[in-house]
Amino acid sequence: MKKVIQLSLLFFIPIFVSAQQDLSIEYANTITTNDLHEHLNILSSDTLEGRETGERGQKMAAAYIADFFKTIELEPIVVTPAGHSYLQSFKLVKRYPGETWIKTANRTYENFEDFAFTGKTSFRQLKKSKLIFVGEGRDEDYAALNVNKKNVIIYSDGRGSERKEKVLLAREHGASEVFIIQTGDEDEFQRMMKSVKWNMKPGRLEFPANPKEVDEGYFMISMPMAKEILNTSQSNLLSAINKSKQGKYTPLIKLISQEITFYASQDVEDVSTENVLGFIEGTDKKDEYIVLTAHYDHLGIDGEEVNNGADDDGSGTVAIMEIAQAFTLAKKAGHGPRRSILFMTVTGEEKGLLGSSYYVTHPALPLESTITNLNIDMIGRIDQSHEENSDYIYLIGSDKLSRELHDVSEKVNTTYTKLELDYTYNDESDPNRFYYRSDHYNFAKNNIPIIFYFNGTHPDYHKPTDTIDKIEFELLEKRARLVFHTAWEIASREDRIAVDVTPEEMELGNSN
Fold first, then answer.
1. How far is CA 32 from each of CA 27, 39, 421, rounded to the nearest angstrom?
2. What pTM was computed for the model?
């Protein structure tokens, strides 16, 4: 009898698997070019004014997505005083640079022209002082130099994240204001200044200041400006730094700063914005959660031109909407997912991953029970590298925390969509660092395995010319179906996706 049962199971298992695959295909096929176009035609229209975070167009987009979630009968799970909602609202502040300058004995330097101030605070009165040069601002340097309640100047050849680390370390040692000398030639410095100005001058959105937080703000100055302030040459600066590395601090101390006068002010405006959340409850594994994300905000209006953001990230947003509908259709037919799924379109990505950052600090579902995040950011276009073979998608991060997730992703693609999975941007040494630049990263920081789906950049990236007429809808449909099949597999399997990359391997990968 036992052998008969085993034999029956052998016949049943492939039939069951086949049925599951057929169901996956059946509901994936409800994701269509027509529906994707219908949604994107609205979200990327001029009427929505570029969907800038906190502005009218973003709120119109949020209302449209929430209404669609209601129509397809996703559950609203955000708890509010008025009851459950699809909208996770939160507060931001917008900081506008005010009067900010630095005066030396010879001239006055202007913010965004000669230097950049990135702080959160406004000075109540102008400041006048000499600066203490602390070399590269290492712990060893502060052991030799007393900077308590003094203003310091630090040499840096690193990225913005490294500069912030230097600022925080300086403040740990009691420094007041921090000036960072940014290395590189004048052209490189001006490119950096242009980028900072573009991000900050129209108003920078961020979370309200926490009184307990250390301000990461600093003055970023050029090498010529530093040489004037310190009355020295670049070669003397570098020589002093090299000596300090050998424990010889006399050359640093001898670099005497001239007295400078400086002032910084900002105007602050309160802003409200919203993530949009729709939930589908699972069956026997409903207490484990998969989160699918795409950001629906964009850059707003530039002069008289609307940044429609059809690809960035209208394409990802409409994919989330269609994937959500496919799962709700399956559930209504009695084929709901075993695990619960949260469909979330997030705000504030263009302003620094703000919406996803807010969600992971105020999660609607427990993060410890969130097993995977699948994030879509731009899947409607073809980049220059794939003009000859457009049947592709870039995958980023699938193996950073979980080899198992990577293997599942590969198998799903081989079974269903057969796209070329391009891992170029998954390389830690890639200078674009896309792994750190979209909403999945806030989940990855919480040890949640992720996959980031991306079509690469194109000439219309972050320009008013990113319009719906340039979207490849058949390709968008196929890529959206890949995400659907992947979510279906993760939701249906017996075991949750394992975090199987060791902390040591993670650290090694992030250090490259």
1. 11, 11, 21
2. 0.85
- Res 240 pLDDT > 90: yes
The answer, yes or no, to whether residue 4 has pLDDT greater than 90, is no
Q: 59-68, 130-139, 153-162, 265-274: lowest mean pLDDT where?
A: 153-162
Q: Is 263 left (phi over 0), alpha (psi -120 to 50) or beta?
A: beta
CA distances from 231 to 122, 243, 359 (A): 28, 18, 49
Task: Name the nearest CA neighbour of 339 among 234, 489, 123.
Answer: 489
Distance CA 80, CA 82 (A): 5
Residue 47 token pair: 């009427």
The residues pairing with 417 across neighbouring beta strands, listed in sequence order, are: none
- The set of residues, in sequence order, having a beta carbon less than 8 Å from that of 327 and lying 6+ positions away, is 27, 280, 336, 337, 341, 484, 487, 488
Distance between CA atoms of 208 and 268, rounded to whole angstroms? 10
pLDDT at 118 exceeding the cut of 50:
yes
Q: Which CATH architecture has domain 27-94+270-510?
A: 3-Layer(aba) Sandwich (3.40)
The whole-angstrom separation of Cα 339 and Cα 229 is 61
3-state SS, residue 265: coil
Q: What is the pLDDT of residue 244?
A: 93
Domain 99-264 has CATH 3.40.50.620: no
* Residue ranges in 333-471 assigned as alpha helix (H): 354-361, 403-412, 440-444
CB distance 317 to 295 below 8 Å: yes
Residue 152 three-state SS: strand
Residues of the chain with CATH 3.50.30.30: 99-264
- Other residues' Cβ atoms within 10 Å of the Cβ of residue 67: 11
d(Cα 451, Cα 503) in Å, to the nearest integer?
A: 19
Average pLDDT, the chain: 92
Identify the pLDDT of residue 11: 43
Question: Residue 15: its pLDDT value, please?
Answer: 42
CB neighbourhood size of 333 (10 A) = 11
Would you say how long the chain is, in residues? 512
CA distance 499 to 371: 9
Determine the pLDDT at residue 512: 43
As annotated, the residues of the chain forming the CATH 3.40.630.10 domain(s) are 27-94+270-510
pLDDT at 2: 40
Q: What is the band of 6 on the pLDDT scale with cuts at 50, 70, 90?
A: very low
